[in-house]
Design a protein that fits this description.
The complex is a heterotrimer. By secondary structure, chain A is of the alpha+beta class. Helix content of chain A is 23%, strand content 34%. Chain A has 8 helices and 21 strands. Chain C folds into 2 domains: 60 residues, no CATH class; 204 residues, MetI-like (MetI-like fold, Orthogonal Bundle), CATH 1.10.3720. Chain C contains 14 helices and 2 strands. The chains are: A alpha+beta, B alpha+beta, C mainly alpha. Chains B and C meet through helix 2 and strand 6 of B and helix 8 and helix 9 of C.
């Protein structure tokens, strides 16, 4: 039943001229979990709603199982839509709530009962089936609600931030639940969120969107490790990637990155930072000139002696790790360190980064240099 | 100890809603203190009584019992307007019929304050600069984005220069990325203003990173109070341990078998004389807590008797969370993203004794 | 599909506006044309050449409008005086209903009032009886109090009747305004009353506009009480027209049409003015942002 989905040069321009989606292309294989990730207003929800048929595209095509459904009405598309707010019907029991979507499409009673029993078994809801929603705990209500949304096995599930209203800790538990259900049902899923952590946890592949366009499509770790643009590098990861402005210069021993002093500082020549670039970049078609260097906070190391001196501005303890917010002559940086490695605010530390984890970007276009 | 009285002191505050038989306790015997300039974060799940606590401090609710002092003086009889505290609400942001500037000036125009127009303008401009919203000042409040609105809402608190800031989950309804950056800005701001803060949240990351001290609240009671490190590393009860850390702490039921603490199925996990087990030395059953980053998992067969099968692997950027089915339950461990596991892999789990937490099995509020 | 829909809408529009259209036509007729057995609906500017009794044309005249100023046989004052009564009574009772209703609704919405549900039910229950069932008791009461035939009498009566509607409508609207709005003001140093005026009232404007429209329409068109509690003093337009029936000269139809047209105008104007509020208000908070 599960179907592959193709979006081809999909566009949406509203009557007032707003271009919400500016021609995007991607394909999801049958059974794949795709997360559309981006800030509010990036066009991710519009893309989802067009796939559902709740809005009609103004250009391009949507193909579900190879059939162009772009102009079909929602009820003809065999999609399941999971909304952000999914209240249970208070006057129905858990079992009746779960069976409700099947009743709507006229599933015979026996098949309905079997599906409810199967789902209850998987959700470990057996003893609760005859209860009313108000007799359940909040967490159980959420599971029933998500279960109800997922009881039907359409060609594709479309989910619009279904966990958006939950407490942070419960959201993570529900992430795992959702992922397990999807793996078992093998229904192709398109999931919209602004939370990069949710995206990383859930997705087979992440589609990062920005300003109506796709920035990058890739597996979570690929997006995290090899971001295709400055935007992706900043948006994925918490905190996002660190950036230093500077320029590339060719030395006798290969390419070097020379950091520029931050604009709001007197440029002390002694503070200038020069980094050798990893050999992997040696074959890249680099050019001398301005460049932005990116490095993830976990690869900024506090060292006894390092090329860069920094002052600790803030110390964020996070239990399993610690984020030090640093002020350097080349601009602010964040270092993720072990939780024991606290540093007094105002202390001076030396920094070092391993060249292997350095990423380079074009400061003009934001594109990755590689 | 400094000589100046605490900025806020609550003593045995109790508050119930409703009357008679059906009264629901919202706060029970809540006692806490906020030192001058201190950032206190109250951490609790939805419905723990966090908002009621703030409303009691602000004077919007009257406690049934208990004493409330501001700067050492009894504040019970003071109306909200007389307490000189500022409250940033979770959902309310701004008055939609006013511009941003008028919204910021609104608290300053209160009748008791009698500020000159020039002083009001000066303070509004100052807050605008501090929060980087100067360019928004003359816009209608209803045209702002969520993050901008919450910035202005915080500005409304700043302009007043109150003796105490109260914030009720100010970042909850914002996008994840925005939440992250505003969280930092807030800490910097509070440090710069050095005004005492009571900050309420359900987000453990916010609590750990922003607090000087955390108070864990559950069902209207204070479970524990301490620095973020104390609460994270030495939680007083499983209930507290579960509130902090992400993914949540693994809890395993233990029983005593000879000289070893064993899991229910008999797997030996910890010698009885281990340092971590000192507090429960006499008990016959105990509850073991293992932080996800404390356990070590390895694909190859190791000496560890604890074995399991990988159920699910989730990416979290710098680390991965591996869910392992072992001991008849799901245990979650965080590993570096240089280690890879796949669902179905058989793994051995090591629990380093020095990083384990043990409570008596009957620990209240499991 | 589309043209069927258009046809249906057009047909309904025709049926709905025909009486108004006919009223407008009648107001420009002479009395003979108005009461002729053959419908005359084509206005002309000059008198018809031959007096064919079955003609469809009539000579348009503004005579009826001019005559509105005169005192009719069987009446004691001109149309415009009665219109004035309607305006004074309608506006004052609307003002009172909205003001009192908003205050009461705010109380019910924000404070714990012992038995508040019972109070609200009681307030609504004043609408259970058909108004005319209490005409006689009210008549006796008003006679004793000397309120018969006074503006004040009708203002109080309409306010009493509309107040239940106003309280219920306004409670719905005020419930939608977050409590945090005035609580923020309280913490900021305002008193409860100041917070009400500075924060709640601007937010409740939509609700007040909707409530005002309903109250005004109900007071403006009320006939039964206006007729019974009056001989002449504060006779409103609906009662005045009805009173013209059965006088020696018969019903002055063109003047009735002209007067009715003028009578409808202010309400239409008022509704158009607050239309923006109405359209938002009518959803009764179903769209939450």
């Amino acid at each position: 039943m599960s179907a592959h989905l193709e979006l081809e040069r999909l566009e949406k321009t509203y009557p007032d001229g707003t271009r919400a989606v500016k021609g995007i292309d991607f394909a999801a294989a049958a059974g794949e979990f795709i997360v559309l990730l981006g800030p509010s207003g990036c066009g991710k929800t519009t893309t989802l709603r067009m796939t559902a048929g709740l809005e009609l595209p103004t250009g391009g095509a949507i193909r579900l199982a190879g059939v162009d459904v772009s102009q079909q009405r929602p009820s003809r598309r065999d999609v399941g839509f999971v909304f952000q707010f999914y209240a249970l019907y208070p006057h129905l029991t858990v079992a009746q709530n779960l069976a409700f979507p099947l009743e709507c499409v006229g599933t015979p009673r026996a098949a309905r009962d079997a599906a409810v029993a199967d789902l209850a078994h998987r959700l470990e809801l057996g003893p609760l089936l005859s209860r009313k929603p108000r007799e359940l705990s909040g967490g159980d209500q959420q599971r029933v609600a998500l279960g109800r949304a997922m009881i039907r096995r359409p060609q594709i599930w479309l989910m619009d931030e279904p966990l958006g209203t939950l407490d942070a800790d419960r959201r993570l538990a529900m992430c795992e639940f959702l992922r397990v259900q999807q793996l078992e049902a093998k229904v192709t899923t398109l999931y919209v969120t602004h939370d990069q952590e949710e995206a990383m946890r859930l997705a087979d592949r992440i589609v990062v969107m920005h300003d109506g366009k796709i920035e990058q499509v890739g597996a979570p770790m690929a997006v995290y490790d090899e971001p295709a643009s400055l935007f992706v590098a900043h948006f994925v990861g918490s905190p996002g990637m660190n950036f230093l402005e500077g320029s590339l210069a060719r030395g006798s021993d290969g390419w070097r990155f020379v950091a520029r002093a931050a604009a709001d500082r007197a440029a002390a020549p002694a503070a200038a930072l020069e980094l050798p670039l990893p050999p992997a970049l040696a074959r890249a078609p680099l050019r001398e000139g301005p460049a932005t260097l990116g490095i993830r906070p976990e690869f900024v190391r506090l060292a006894a002696a390092g090329p860069l001196r920094a002052t600790v501005v803030l110390d964020e303890y996070l239990g399993a790790s610690r984020c030090l917010h640093l002020d350097t002559p080349c601009g602010p940086l964040v270092a993720r360190v072990a939780p024991e490695a606290g540093a007094a605010i105002g202390a001076t530390v030396a920094l070092d980064f391993s060249p292997a984890h350095v990423r380079l970007f074009d400061p003009e276009s934001g594109a990755r240099l590689r | 100890m400094s000589a100046s009285p605490p900025a806020l002191r609550l003593d045995s505050i109790t508050k119930r809603f409703g009357r008679g038989e059906r009264a629901v306790p919202a706060l029970t015997d809540v006692t806490l203190e906020v030192a001058p300039g201190e950032r206190l974060v109250v951490l609790g799940a939805t419905g723990a009584g966090k908002t009621t606590l703030l409303r009691v401090i602000a004077g919007l609710e009257t406690p049934d019992r208990g004493r409330i002092e501001l700067d050492g003086r009894d504040a019970a009889a003071l109306a909200p307007a007389e307490r000189d505290v500022a409250l940033v609400f979770q959902n309310f942001s701004l008055y939609p019929h006013l511009t941003v500037r008028e919204n910021l000036a609104f608290p300053l125009r209160a009748p008791g304050r009698a500020l000159a127009a020039a002083e009001i303008a000066r303070r509004v401009d100052e807050a605008g600069e501090l929060l980087r919203i100067t360019r928004l000042l003359d816009r209608p409040a209803k045209n702002l984005s969520g993050g901008e609105m919450q910035r202005v809402a915080i500005g409304r608190a700043i302009v007043r220069r109150p003796r105490l800031f109260l914030l009720d989950e100010p970042l909850t309804n914002l996008d994840a990325k925005l939440r992250e950056s505003l969280r930092l800005e807030l800490v910097k701001l509070f440090r710069a203003l050095s005004v005492p803060v009571v900050y309420v949240t359900h987000d453990q990351a916010e609590a750990l990173s922003m607090a000087d001290r955390i108070v864990v609240l559950s069902e209207g009671r204070v479970l524990q109070s301490g620095t973020p490190r104390e609460i994270y590393l030495a939680p007083a009860s499983p209930a507290v341990a579960r509130q902090l850390g992400q993914p949540a702490i693994n809890l395993i039921e233990l029983e005593r078998r000879g000289a070893t603490w064993c899991a229910r199925d008999g797997t030996p996990l910890l010698p009885i004389d281990a340092a971590a087990a000192r507090g429960v030395a006499d008990a016959s059953a105990a509850l073991l807590g293992v932080r996800p980053e404390a356990g070590r998992i390895a694909a190859e067969a190791r000496a560890s008797p604890l074995r399991g099968r990988v159920e699910l692997v989730e990416e979290c950027g710098p680390h991965r969370v591996v869910a392992v089915h072992a001991l008849g339950q799901t245990l979650r461990f965080a590993v570096g993203n240089d280690r890879s596991f796949s669902p179905g892999d058989a793994v051995a789990i090591e629990l380093p004794p020095e990083r384990l937490l043990l409570w008596p099995a009957d620990s209240s509020a499991r | 599909m589309r043209w069927v829909a258009r046809l249906l809408i057009g047909g309904y529009l025709l049926v709905a506006t025909l009486p108004l259209f006919w009223m407008a036509l009648t107001s420009f007729k002479a009395k003979q044309d108005a009461i002729s057995l053959h419908p005359r609906f084509v206005p002309t500017l000059s008198a018809p050449a031959e007096a064919d009794p079955e003609r469809v044309t009539f000579e348009a005249t503004t005579e009826a409008y001019a005559k509105l100023r005169a005192v009719q046989t069987g009446a004691s004052a001109s149309y415009f005086e009665h219109l004035g009564n309607s305006v004074v009574i309608g506006l004052l009772s609307t003002l009172l209903s909205v003001a009192l209703g908003t205050l009461a609704a705010y109380g019910f919405s924000r404070f714990e009032i012992a038995g508040s549900k019972d109070w609200l039910f009681f307030i609504l229950s004043t609408r259970f009886l058909p108004a005319l069932a209490v005409v006689v008791p009210v008549l006796i009461m008003y006679r004793e109090l000397g309120l018969l035939g006074t503006h004040l009498g009708l203002v109080l009566l309409y306010t009493a009747f509309n107040l239940s509607l106003a309280v219920w409508l306004m409670k719905g609207f005020i419930d939608e305004i977050p409590r945090a709005f005035e609580e923020a003001a309280l913490v900021d140093g305002y008193s409860r009353l100041q917070a009400f005026f500075r924060v709640i009232l601007p937010q409740a404007r939509t609700g007040m506009a909707v409530t005002a429209v309903f109250c005004l329409i109900s007071a403006w068109n009320e006939y039964g009480f206006a007729m019974t509690l009056n001989s002449s003093g504060a006779l409103t337009v609906p009662a005045y027209f009805a009173g013209l029936q059965g006088n020696l000269e018969g019903m002055p139809w063109p003047q009735v049409a002209a007067g009715a047209l003028l009578f409808v105008a202010p309400i239409v104007l008022f509704t158009v003015l607050v239309r923006r509020h109405l359209l938002r208000g009518m959803t009764f908070g179903t769209i939450k942002q």
